[in-house]
Amino acid sequence: MPKTAPILLVLAYLAFISLGLPDTVLGVAWPSLRAQFGIPASAMGAALGAGLVGYFASGLWAGIGVAKLGVGGLLAASSALVATALLGYTLAPSWGLFFPVGVLMGLGSGAIDSGLNGYAARHFSVRHVNWLHACWGVGASAGPALMTFAIAEGFGYRAGYAALASVLGAMAALFLLTQRRWDDPRPAQGDPAAAAASPAPERAGFRAALGRGRVWLLIVTFFFYTGLESSVGQWCFSWMRERRGLSVEAAGAWTSAYWASLTIGRLVLGLFVDRFGPDRLLRWASLGAVLGVAAFTGSGGGLGRAGLLLLGVSLAPMFPTLMARTPARVGEDVAHHAVGFQVSAATLGSTLMPALGGVLVSSGGLGAIAALVLALGLALLLSHEVLLRVTARRI
């Protein structure tokens, strides 16, 4: 694993916090936006859909961006794009100009996500990758608090978005100042000994990456993972409230506990992942996810609540650890493309599977959610077992 300057590790932690900041503020700003623009509740789908389009496209082409701009250049440009999008949210005079900005937001955020994950997978230990993703949770928690403060103090949602724009603008400046440090060191010309000691991996093209079965296995695994994580997160409140009869406060508290268990799990399991072994941890985590889903959907008492927390803790290390193992599984020559594909697949899974849940509930009632999340849990376990078997000789 190439040696990394400590300043880049610190900057990566800050970047993951800043990446999480704007991701969760739309819900807080939404009542103000509806009042400002006179739009129905269903209009939120337009804003979310615009972001999805940008995020998905960005993940697909992030590998090409790294090849053209370098990691530092991509991070600087993408952070500037997110800052510009947040400024666009601040200044947009109408809904017709507000929601399309989500495409820019998704393009920038997706590129940051792919660029940082790709770099972290090559340069940081699995422990640090887990902690980096826990930092995203810190930002995702702080963003709504910042927006709430801006609205509650009478500054309005525009001030909240302006504050977020300033944070991302500062990150863009930091990435620009450290741009060259993010590139892998290359041996001096005419120094064959140095070249042999630290060869820079040749990077294969977009099509070469898509031609590898291991890449597709990871794409499928990420789709199932985020599909399960997001489906449970989006439908947990309804399940607890309508299926289990909990009060609004209790159902909300358990939904928050589920998301908190993901962040806490990454912090705690990050301490032990190097000692336990990342592949063994992933195997036990995928099995724990199935057991957690079964307990959560099958019991209305304490066992069901414990199952929800087990599910959250089990899912916690999967995204960062799978990312960290990507170069070893698919080869460093295509890892920059593979990471982008995985981000795109994760975006699709987190959007399409909860939406499918809505279709199933409309036709078959809330009980259909249990069948959906159980199926996703089993699919995740199976896809990861196949991935382990296929890549065993490589790693």
Structure, described:
It is a single chain. The protein is mostly helical. It has 2 domains: 178 residues, Growth Hormone, Chain: A, CATH 1.20.1250; 185 residues, MFS general substrate transporter like domains (Growth Hormone, Chain: A). It has 17 helices and no strands. Helix 3 packs across helix 5, helix 6 packs antiparallel against helix 7 and helix 15 packs across helix 16. About 4% of the residues have low confidence.
Q: Architecture of the largest domain in CATH?
A: Up-down Bundle
Average pLDDT, rounded to a whole number, is 85
Strand count, sense and barrel status of the largest sheet are: none
- N-C termini distance: 14 Å
SS-based class: mainly alpha
Secondary-structure element string: HHHHHHHHHHHHHHHHH
State the domain count: 2
What is the helix content?
over 70%
CATH class of the largest domain: Mainly Alpha
CATH homologous superfamily grouping of the largest domain: MFS general substrate transporter like domains
Q: Please give the radius of gyration in angstroms.
A: 21 Å
Key terms:
395 residues, mainly alpha, Growth Hormone, Chain: A, 2 domains, 17 helices, 0% strand
Draw up the topology in text.
Blueprint: H1 6-20, H2 26-37, H3 44-91, H4 95-98, H5 101-123, H6 126-152, H7 157-177, H8 192-197, H9 206-210, H10 213-243, H11 248-269, H12 273-276, H13 278-298, H14 302-315, H15 318-330, H16 335-364, H17 368-391
Helix pairs in contact: 1-5, 1-6, 1-7, 2-6, 3-5, 3-7, 3-16, 5-15, 5-16, 6-7, 6-11, 6-15, 10-11, 10-15, 10-16, 10-17, 11-14, 13-14, 13-15, 13-17, 15-16
